[in-house]
Design brief:
Structural class: alpha+beta
Strand content: 5-15%
Mean pLDDT: 87
Low-confidence stretches: 1-39, 42-116, 810-816
Largest sheet: 11 strands, antiparallel
Helix content: 40-55%
Distance between the termini: 32 Å
Length: 816
């Protein structure tokens, strides 16, 4: 499946990146560290990293918390920040220095100019890039892309980890198949295998509640709250106190915003915490599954074709947003009615062709393009190699544990998909870093910036100390990040993960709501309940035990000082047999019942998983406090460092967009193929290519109906004139990453022409450094979507709702 879910999938700094949103119960220290990363201004790593490592249950709702694991900080970088500007040198030396500096700056500018489409721009930055968009083919007024109260942007919605868009006045939402996969899996079982066969509601009455925790977020407003966030924040505060002040300010802003009913608000950090924006969203809680094609369409090619081109995957699906009859948002109720959005995207009558302008609006989870050279070196030398190996092992363990057991395969399908997907992405990262010489490129860019600082006493006074401080703190963060990877493995035991979260809830309820940690406030309760409920369809005790045993083996590779002695002692006393035999938390009602019990009840409980949770708590709190201190110091240093970097880049004529952090962004490019050594990638794949790949087995098993229709060339009005056949997917130069999965792809008139769902393995390194030659996004073509709905699955009801006239007869109709 695509690698573009925030939880590649953040989904985790990918982080994700924002406050803690509970997905499954991730241990308290790491839950808080998600918030910590947010305040420190890091885009963190995909939430999916922690979710996958910790087990955790997959859902298409993937929070963008500050969370989990972020590209670690590392070794101290020794460079020009300590050099003084030398005065009184000879004219020749001065001229040589100026020439060298001019050459370096010119080189950097040339690289930037070559990648004109690079950038994930905030809506408020459209004035900076509007002329370039116009020149490339945008036909609507660029100012329109800065408005959240009008189309097309107010038709763009977030699913909490994927992107999506309204495509009808009745609240129909188009997104990727892999973004609705969790809901398909949730309703599947032996004898009702929607995973394999797909799902289509023939009427609104047949539309199914999406998996617990599913949300549709409609962005209403964004405003700069930097002054409010930095109120009371000063250099006199130590790291922990600075973090706490930022957290208090954030919660105050959110509480005021959420006084409006049915709103979910978030404060996003940009440029390392140098600026902050408050985002206000309508939270639609009743989300229903409407349509998803068969697995042989929505995931045709499977993991083999993931991140690859040519691609023939129909990666699309549909939800619908529901609200109360009075229009207010509320949880599922039988008398709820379809939501009526203010805008929806019109479906383009004509698709795209090679060279056409396209743009994507969505919620990219995280990029790391503004990281320091030390962070880059550490990530590719230590962090990602370990993470890739852990995920590879995890996927193999799941496959082995579920072999021959179809019910187990269905229950663990989402988790396995996430592990395999992200592991492959990491392989692309590691290969891409070598291929483009990332370490040397980053060192050159950073040296030019630091030399610029060192060359002027005023700049040195303003930015020099922050550069030195950041170098030191990244080394601390790097060491901690490797420990966190293995510590996170304990939560592959789903019931242990739940018990830890439940106990933390009990401890937090002893405080007033405003004093609780993020993720444990009243605003988070409903999402917590949803996550506790998800386990019932994604858990089997015998499988969980096998995965936990493997996780324990890896955890014990930690140095003894980095392991939790109290936990290990308690586990030795309980034993794995009793752990699973004696727990009552596997029952959903029992699990939910513990959400309202006091901490004393946990401390007196005989449930073995609760005993482990209580044993882990003190160590978790200590780890959390240390992480908060590092985060506060990181924010102080990185915010100033980024102010200097922006000033430097502006001095050489380069606009600076912030790293992706889960907030709304716009990017654009052209429908363009790619030439590689001995290969020419044309920008479109076709139905005939799909048929050529079809084997009738495994990942390349297309439904009989689609095979018959292609053989008959029954393409109706969906043929692309320039191709003379039915397009399936297309490739473009738009700049996307995790979280962009399901993003609407629009033409120059703002009309819907497809959905972004993946990139190429060679291009995933763009999360760290864009490269014009390598970076390509993959989109499912709207013509293939409409053809599948019309000719294969008989979804004429939905087509009419979208303003598309179905063909006279479909293959599905003829079969009936």
């Amino acid at each position: 499946m695509s690698g573009l879910r925030r939880c590649r999938r953040s989904d985790t700094d990918g982080a994700a990146h924002h406050h803690i949103v509970i997905e499954s119960f991730i241990p308290l220290a790491r839950l808080v560290r998600r918030t910590i990363r947010k305040h420190a201004g890091h885009p963190t790593r995909e939430v999916g990293v922690i979710r996958i490592l910790a087990l955790t249950v997959h859902s298409e709702w993937q929070p963008t918390g500050a969370g989990g694991c972020r590209p670690p900080d590392c070794h101290r970088f020794r460079s020009a920040e300590n050099r003084k500007r030398i005065r009184g040198t000879t004219s020749m030396n001065s001229n040589l220095k100026r020439l060298a500096k001019a050459t370096a700056i010119a080189l950097l500018w040339t690289v930037s100019a070559a990648w004109a489409h690079e950038g994930m721009w905030m809506p408020g930055q459209t004035a900076e890039v509007g002329a370039a968009m116009r020149a490339d083919g945008l036909q609507i007024d660029p100012a329109q892309l800065g408005r959240l109260d009008a189309g097309p942007l107010n038709a763009i919605v977030s699913l909490g980890g994927c992107s999506a868009s309204f495509v009808s006045p009745q609240g129909l939402v188009a997104t990727n198949h892999h973004c609705v996969f969790g809901s398909i899996q949730y309703h599947s079982k032996e004898g009702q295998d929607y995973l394999t066969n797909g799902f289509l509601a023939k009427s609104v009455d047949e539309e199914l509640p999406a998996a617990p925790g599913s949300r549709i977020y409609v962005i209403e407003h964004m405003r700069d709250v930097t002054a409010d966030m930095l109120n009371g924040v000063s250099d006199k505060l130590n790291g922990f106190a600075r973090y706490e002040r930022l957290d208090t300010n954030r919660k105050t802003l959110i509480a005021a915003c959420e006084e409006q009913p049915n709103r979910r608000c978030e404060v996003w950090a940009y440029y390392g915490g140098a600026s902050y924006y408050l985002e206000q969203k309508l939270e639609i809680q009743d989300v229903r599954l409407v349509y998803a094609p068969a697995l042989g369409i929505g995931n045709f090619g499977g993991e083999t074709d993931n991140w690859m081109w040519p691609r023939h995957t129909g990666d699309f699906g549909f939800y619908r947003a529901y609200v109360a009859p009075d229009g207010s948002a509320r949880p599922y109720a039988r008398d709820n009615v379809p939501y009526r959005p203010k805008s929806w995207l019109p479906i383009a009558r004509d698709g795209v062709k090679e060279g056409d302008f396209v743009m994507v609006a969505g919620f990219p989870g995280s990029t790391n393009r503004l990281r320091t050279a030390d962070e880059v070196r550490f990530n590719f030398a230590h962090y990602e190699p370990l993470l890739q190996r852990l995920l590879s092992d995890y996927a193999a363990q799941i496959r082995q544990a579920t072999t021959g057991n179809r019910e187990a395969q269905i229950r663990y399908a989402s988790i396995l998909q996430g592990a395999e997907n992200y592991e492959k992405k990491l392989a692309g990262d590691l290969a891409g870093a070598d291929a483009i010489g990332l370490e040397a490129r980053k060192a050159t860019e950073e040296k030019a910036y630091r030399d610029w600082v060192a060359d002027d006493p005023a700049r040195q006074a303003r930015y020099g100390a922050a550069i030195r401080e950041l170098d030191a703190i990244v080394a601390e963060n790097s060491r901690a990040s490797l420990e966190e990877l293995r510590q996170a493995l304990l939560d592959r035991a789903q019931i242990l993960s739940s018990a830890r979260g439940l106990y933390r809830w009990a401890k937090e309820r002893e405080k007033s709501d405003e004093d609780r940690e993020s993720g444990f406030q009243d605003r988070d309760r409903n999402q917590t309940v949803d996550q506790l409920m998800q386990i019932e369809r994604r858990y089997l005790p015998d499988i969980d035990r096998k995965l936990f045993e493997a996780a324990l083996d890896e955890y014990r590779r930690l140095n003894e000082k980095d392991r939790d002695t109290a936990f290990e002692t308690a586990l030795d006393q309980i034993g794995l047999d009793r752990l699973y035999a004696d727990t009552k938390l596997a029952d959903t009602a029992t699990r939910l019942g513990w959400l309202d019990k006091p901490a004393a009840a946990f401390e007196l409980s005989d449930d073995p998983f609760i005993k482990l949770a209580v044993a882990l708590y003190p160590g978790d709190i200590a780890t959390e406090r240390a992480a908060k201190d590092r985060a506060g110091r990181t924010q102080a240093a990185r915010a100033t460092y980024m102010q200097g970097l922006r000033a430097y880049r502006q001095s050489i004529g380069r606009s600076v967009y912030p790293d992706a952090n889960g907030s709304l962004r716009i990017t654009w490019g052209k429908v363009t193929g790619r030439t590689r050594d001995g290969q020419i990638w044309t920008p479109f794949t076709t139905a005939e290519g799909l048929l050529a790949k079809h084997t009738g087995k495994g990942e390349f098993d297309a439904p009989d109906a689609i095979v018959a229709a292609i053989q008959a060339k029954d393409y109706g009005p969906y043929v692309a004139p320039t191709l003379g056949t039915l397009p399936v997917d297309f490739m473009s130069t738009v700049d996307i990453t995790n979280g962009n999965s399901g993003s609407a792809t629009l033409n120059g008139r703002g009309e819907f022409v497809g959905l972004a769902f993946d990139g190429t393995l060679e291009g995933v390194i763009s999360d760290w450094a864009p490269d014009a030659d390598r970076d390509r996004a993959i989109h499912v073509d709207s013509r293939f979507m409409l053809w599948t709905m019309d000719k294969i699955d008989g979804a004429g009801r939905l087509l009419k709702e979208m303003g598309v006239r179905p063909s006279s007869r479909s293959c599905a109709d003829r079969k009936r």
